[in-house]
Structure formats: C-alpha cells, structure tokens
Specification:
Length: 464
C-alpha cells in the first residue's frame, strides 16, 4: 500500500499528526504540498510542487505517480478536498469526483443539493451585499446565522439578533473573507463555487457531530458526539461529550437524513463528518464534510465507538471498504474542549503546570497554536490554542475539572499581561465581551454525561 496526502498550501503542522497515523497504520504515506515547509515530512517521501496553482499540483502528482504508482490520494484539509478529487480523476485513482467534492466544499452548493433532495435544513439565502442579508433576516426572522460559503471551524460565523448587528457583522465577515486561512490554503485556478456569505434561519435546539462512512448504498453513522457549548453570538467549536445522549429513534432519523444528503451531494464512497442540529424537536442537517472531523474527534470515535476515522480514510482512498459498523457505544465516556484565549494577539507562549499534564484526569493535551502565531478571537476570527481532554464521573465533575485546569493554563500574548485559557463556562464573567450565562436548556441537555480519555495518547506540555 502506498498513499499520497495533498495540501495546496500547507496549513502549518495541523494535519501532520493524522498523516503520521496513516503511516503507522501501514499507509506508507507520501506527502505533496503545493507550497510548504521543506522539513515537513521524510525527505524521501516528500515533495513540494512550488506552486499553489491546481495545474502545477496535478502535474507534480502525475509525475510522482509515474514513479511510485500510488494506490490512493487523500487529504485531511477541508481546503484541499476539491484538489484531491481532481488529482484522483487525473491519475485514475478512487475518488468522489470533482463535482461532488465541489458541492461538499461549498456550503451554498451543498444547501442547494440538500434542498433538491428534500433534506430538512435551515432556510438559506446567498447574500452578495448587506441589503440582501437584511432582507433575508427580515424574511426568516431574527435570530439568523451569517456564515461564509467556503469557511471551516466556525470562522466568521455569527448569530445575528437584529438589523444593526447584521450591518456590523456583515462588514466583519466581508473583511474576514479576504484573509480567511481556509481560502488562502485553497489551490488557485479551479472552480470551487461562489465565494461569499450565506444567511440561514436559526435552529433552536441541541447539536451533534458524527463520524460516518458512505459506501455505495450504505451509510454508517459510526460515532456520535454531543456538542455541549454555551453559545453566545459566535459558534466556537469547543466542548464535546460522548457517548451521545440521543435516542435510538433520533439516531435512526439522523441516519436517514445523512444518507439522503450524502447522495444529494453526489458522494457514494467517503469518510464523512456530519453535523446535525435540532429545531423544534426534529433533526436538521447543518453540513456534511468529506473528511473526518477536526480536533480530537478521531480519538473520541476510537475510544467511545470502536471506529477509527483515520483507517477509514486510508481504506476509502484505495477503494477498500473500511471496517465500520452502525454506532455502537463502547461504554467509555469522554469530554474534550478547545483551549481558548480571552484576547486576540501574537502568541508568545502557552504553558500548562506539570500537575495538570501529570494528572490522572488529563488524557490528552495538544497545542495547535505555535509561538508567533496571530490569534484572532470573534468577531475578527476564531483561532484556538489547542485541545484538552479530561476524565470524570459525572457532568458536574468533568465541568469542574475543565474549568479548574483551563484557569491554570497560562497564555501570554506579546505586549499583553499574562492571562489564562477559558472554557465556555468561564466566559460568563466577561460581560464586556457580550458573553452569556449557560441556558437551562444547555445545561439540561448535557447533564449526566461524563468524560473519558484516550489511553494511548500521552498528555503533552503546551509550552512551545
């Protein structure tokens, strides 16, 4: 087996850990970056095309394929799914197809596909200017959600409660579109659909994340996670708990929705990440990505559902059906959170005390931000510092541990006083930034869920 991982422009070292897993699982992974760091991967299995243009990246992949005869091509980067589909077509390797990849990458095209298939989704409108956005807000009724068509990780996604907020946040998001990393790392010279802003009706219920596999006429919801986030006007992708609190009836409805939506996107074989949010008691689809979910969701799936999204990507890339079953919780509980800074700035360092890294309650700690990175917080951006996973015996126990640990993790921005990380619950003391207290609905939905760790992943010091 010999596989190729591709990014048009290397997104720091964010996906290197997953690439290493593919290698460890026998993938013999080679890496091609259009633009990238010279020491990113083993020298004998690494090439840089020297260009971010799609034709140059395809040409570099073709030239290398003639020598190595790859069995498949893959990516973990949302901004590279269309590029990988194009390479797969050009090299005659398994893939979803460029049209399906484009529909799965662009949220406007995705919404149109879902709508045509009768999938339950929010109302939506593409908004080339603020006047159209204001009209959509009036028609749908506030609150509404404003989001980029080609975003990821909730960057420049806002809940809008009034016309005045719409004017302000539309300007913020329009500015953000010019510098969003998910566009700056796309291959240039290819059609990825309309780039702009969507206004969507607000879904008022709880949210859930799934790692899934599409294989011909079958759709497997292999892992289910509850998103337990104290939401304000921004959608930080921060707290996840597993196993899910969803009923078998709800899971059956969701499986039907995700299958219909996947096929509407033109996808027949792929590892997937699906997001569902309830509205008036019924599940509605937020999106389906043709790659695994980010953060530590791959580890969550392995531990809580006996499913490995990384192996699934490896197998689908070479045209082999992955080892997968419908969601069957292992009985293991876990909780994880993003590490979030209070302020924006240039990162000087992040550090965690040894009593936290060595704590039996700490199972995973990883910094994704590095010294010198620019950290932007809403409304300017949505960067995080890293991840923290802890164990506990109840929701209250885990919440207390997360809050305690996060409040002892030092964050230093250049030219700013020493500060601490915050969890969503810690935002309630930030009245000046518009943070909100957790609602009773939020707390009730998360009650009695505990956390559990990843036994084979040691906690790492976060100081870089």
């Amino acid at each position: 087996m010999k596989l190729l991982h591709v990014e048009a422009k290397q997104n720091l070292y964010y996906y290197q850990g997953r690439s290493k897993q593919v290698d460890e699982y026998g993938g013999n992974l080679h890496v091609l970056n259009g633009v990238g760091e010279p020491d990113f991967w083993d020298a004998g299995r690494y090439r840089i095309a020297g260009s971010q243009r799609i034709d140059d990246i395809v040409a570099a992949a073709r030239e290398w394929h003639e020598v190595e005869q790859f069995d498949g091509v893959l990516t973990f980067a949302e901004s590279a799914v269309v590029t990988v589909a194009r390479i797969a077509e050009e090299l005659g390797l398994p893939g979803v197809g460029v049209d399906a990849a484009r529909t799965s990458r662009n949220k406007l095209l995705m919404r149109r596909a879902h709508e045509s298939a009768g999938v339950p989704i929010p109302k939506f409108r593409f908004c080339p200017d603020v006047d159209v956005a204001l009209a959509a807000g009036e028609e749908f009724g506030y609150p509404v959600v404003l989001k980029p068509t080609l975003g990821a990780a909730s960057h420049f996604v806002y809940r809008i409660d009034s016309p005045q907020e719409m004017r302000e946040r539309f300007a913020d998001a329009t500015d953000g579109l010019q510098r969003m990393i998910w566009m700056r790392t796309e291959a240039t010279g290819q059609d990825i659909g309309p780039y702009g802003l969507l206004v969507e009706s607000f879904l008022n219920g709880h949210e859930h994340l799934f790692e899934a596999v599409a294989w011909d006429d079958d759709l497997y919801l292999a892992s289910a996670v509850d998103r337990v986030t104290v939401e304000g006007h921004n959608f930080d992708d921060d707290v996840h708990v597993a196993p899910t609190s969803l009923s078998e009836t709800d899971l059956a409805k969701i499986q039907h929705i995700v299958k219909a939506a996947t096929h509407a996107q033109g996808v027949r074989r792929s590892a997937l990440h699906a997001e569902i949010r309830f509205h008036d008691g019924e599940p509605h689809l937020l999106e389906i990505a043709i790659r695994p979910g980010g953060g530590a969701l791959d580890m969550v799936a392995r531990v809580t559902a006996d499913f490995c999204p990384i192996r699934a990507v490896r197998d689908v890339a070479r045209g082999v059906k992955p080892k997968v079953q419908h969601y069957t919780p292992t009985g293991v509980h876990m909780m994880g959170t993003c590490l979030i800074s209070r302020e924006s700035g240039e990162l000087e360092y992040v550090s965690v005390p040894e009593e936290i890294t060595n704590s039996p309650k700490t199972l995973f700690a990883k910094a994704t931000a590095m010294v010198g990175d620019t950290i932007l917080r809403p409304p300017q951006g949505n960067n995080i510092l890293g991840f923290l996973v802890v164990t506990g015996t109840s929701f209250d126990d885990v919440q207390t541990t997360l809050e305690d640990f996060a409040n002892r993790i030092d964050v230093k921005m250049v030219g700013q006083p020493l500060a601490k990380c915050i969890t969503p619950w810690g935002r309630s003391d930030q009245a000046s930034s518009g943070s909100e207290q957790p609602s009773q609905e939020d707390v009730h939905a998360a009650e009695d869920l505990a956390a559990t760790p990843v036994p084979d992943v040691p906690a790492e010091a976060l100081r870089r």
